[in-house]
Design a protein that fits this description.
The complex is a heterodimer of chains A (261) and B (347). Chain A is an all-alpha fold and 261 residues long. Chain A has helices spanning 3-23, 26-52, 55-88, 90-95, 101-129, 138-166, 169-181, 197-205, 208-220, 229-257.
Chain lengths: 261, 347
């Protein structure tokens, strides 16, 4: 077999392993699937009326925010999964074998991508089911999906870096909370201009906001903050490519140089 | 010695391996030579550097200095060659909890790039060999400690390695599982696999190893066959139990004068004296005791165990010269013995 064939085989095996692990953790899997559904219903029917006056239009507003929120939760899962593997010694075993070290990370990231795309599909499905009506073309749908894939990929590599740095599954778990709360301080659920001015400035410029605004613009035809779709999309792309590049490089470097305890 | 060119007699040769973490030396110049086909035990307390040494030899950690050749591959120049020659079984039994036993082995076989059909057949064979056939479709999470270790070993034997690392293979196992695992390791040894075993259990090294190296504070302080190491203490240990503290102290003083290195427990009135096992030596000992006027103690003898060697090395401030190269230092008529209270704790 060639070296490329080896890389492909190693990666396939690692991805299979991580997907199996995801499917066989019924509690985590159930939570990951319930979260989008419950949050969607909660925000639209419980808070939606107060936030937007009429709940049916609020669903048009929050779909991108919920996608980001659920992806943040999913990234936490990825960080914990990698930290657990490192702590358990199986990574040491893999690294003592003549295999591509990168395939170990690839397995986790690919499984993360699969889990989060499933959660995203649920958000979109439930949204459409309760009256979300995007006014858009097929091309814009494709662009939105491309943005989501890039976003989840960047977040998954970031999660892998955190998993390597955390030093243990518990510490990695704390990361979930950061990513779960960060979307609240963005344009995910309310317009940032309704916040106190200092907070609004932070909320408007943190990475999640342009990403959410781009999805919103692509689906609904207009953003919530008055900036043009093109502007938001550029800012989002720069953030995402930046996070992806730094996380990917950082993760592979950390993995190679991580001093064994 | 032309024959050694064709077939290297050593699977592992390491010279002056050093590693420090945060300025603290963990390995302080370790030399190793492990003969092909032998079982080599690295014995030492927690923190002695055993796991670090294994991680270095298994390519997981880079040494700060020193060099090593494993199965003919240079550790630093050709780590992939080393990886192809070794199998590592971890202290924590590095198998996947969530997968079944069979899935674990098939995963490892896949990573070794065995064709699928070959892999399946080999896995079936290994499951039978390691007595896991009935449990093959259960998740490893439900396995007992002993079953996990056996699966771990089976995973290491998919392609028979030139060097098998067993990092504390029986830590945390109940005595019965330990005996079972020892049987498995012996069986592997008989198949000619070179094994590097780390353990903190002296009995384990005694049971399994052809050669034992004692690691303390990052250095090998003694090395030899279990028999040689035990012989370094003398052939018989005479244990004297006293009834009165006064007698005990008098006897201790007299034995010091005799240059017999009697070790004692602080609370117990016990002296252990290593002897060469001759009647003359015993007579000298008893006459010396009688001369002190101490009430006759109760006397018992036992053969030294590796515990005694280990404890004497651990307990003594001035280490005896390390008996490297397979020949333990020659015992005097009286030798050093460990603190008996600690010996009893260790069992």
């Amino acid at each position: 077999m060639t070296s490329l064939a080896h890389t492909v085989t190693d990666s396939r095996i690692m991805i299979t392993r991580c997907l199996r692990r995801s499917l066989r953790d019924p509690e985590a899997f159930f939570t990951a699937l319930m979260l989008p559904v419950v949050l969607m219903l909660l925000f639209v029917y419980v808070f939606g009326g107060a936030l937007r006056g009429a709940s049916h239009s609020y669903v048009d507003y929050i779909v991108p925010g919920l996608i980001v929120l659920c992806a943040g939760f999913g990234a936490g899962t990825t960080a914990v999964a990698l930290a657990t593997d490192l702590a358990g010694g199986i990574v040491d075993r893999f690294r003592s074998m003549p295999i591509r070290a990168s395939s170990i990370l690839l397995g986790q990231v690919a499984a993360s991508l699969a889990r989060n795309l499933l959660a995203t599909a649920l958000v979109i499905g439930v949204g459409l089911g309760i009256g979300w009506r995007p006014t858009t073309s097929a091309w814009r749908w494709l662009a939105a999906i491309g943005m989501i894939v890039l976003f989840i990929l960047a977040l998954s590599w970031l999660a892998a870096a955190i998993g390597l740095l955390a030093g243990g599954p518990e510490a990695a778990n704390a990361f979930t909370f950061v990513l779960m709360f960060l979307p609240y301080v963005s344009s995910a659920f309310v317009r940032t201009d309704t916040m106190p001015s200092g907070l609004a400035a932070v909320a408007a410029h943190q990475p999640f906001t342009p990403i959410i605004e781009t999805m919103r613009g692509l689906w609904m035809g207009h953003t919530s903050l008055g900036a043009s779709l093109g502007h938001e999309a550029w800012v989002a792309l720069v953030y995402l490519v930046g996070i992806l590049a730094v996380s990917y490089a950082g993760t592979t470097w950390l993995f190679r140089h991580r001093a064994a305890a | 010695m032309a024959h050694t060119v064709l077939r290297m007699p050593y699977t592992v040769i390491a010279e002056d391996l050093r590693k420090a973490f945060g300025g603290r030396p963990v390995l302080d110049g370790v030399d190793l030579a492990i003969e092909r086909g032998s079982v080599f035990a690295l014995l030492g307390p927690n923190g002695a550097g055993k796991t670090t040494l294994v991680k270095i030899l298994a390519t997981l950690t880079r040494p700060d200095a020193g060099r090593a050749t494993i199965a003919g591959h240079d550790l630093l120049e050709d780590p992939d060659g080393v990886k192809r020659a070794i199998s590592l079984t971890g202290q924590y039994a590095a198998v996947d909890d969530v997968l079944t036993g069979r899935e674990n082995l098939e995963m490892m076989a896949g990573l070794l790039h065995l064709p699928r059909r070959t892999a399946r057949a080999r896995v079936t064979e290994l499951l039978a060999e390691f007595d896991l056939t009935d449990a093959q479709h259960r998740r490893v999470k439900t396995y007992s400690g002993g079953m996990r270790r056996r699966l771990d070993l089976a995973a290491s034997m998919i392609e028979s390695p030139e060097l098998l690392f067993l990092d504390e293979p029986t830590t945390g196992l109940d005595p019965r599982s330990r005996e079972q695992l020892w049987g498995t390791v012996r069986h592997l040894g008989e198949q000619g696999v070179t094994i590097l075993l780390t353990t903190q259990y002296l009995e384990e090294a005694d049971q399994l190893a052809d050669t034992v190296a004692m690691l303390r504070d990052g250095r090998i302080v003694a090395q030899g066959t279990p028999e040689e190491l035990k012989a370094s203490l003398g052939t018989e240990i005479v244990r004297l139990r006293f009834a009165e503290p006064g007698d005990y102290r008098a006897a201790r003083g007299a034995l010091r004068a005799l240059d017999a290195d009697a070790e004692t427990g602080d609370d117990e009135l016990i002296l252990d004296v290593a002897t060469d096992g001759t009647a003359a030596c015993l007579r000298e000992l008893l006459e010396t005791l009688a001369a002190t006027g101490a009430a006759t103690p109760r006397v018992s003898t036992h053969r030294p165990s590796l515990d005694d060697v280990f404890m004497s090395l651990t307990a003594s401030a001035n280490l005896p010269p390390s008996a490297t190269g397979g020949s333990a230092h020659s015992p005097g008529r009286f030798g050093r013995v460990a603190n008996p209270a600690r010996m009893e704790n260790a069992r």
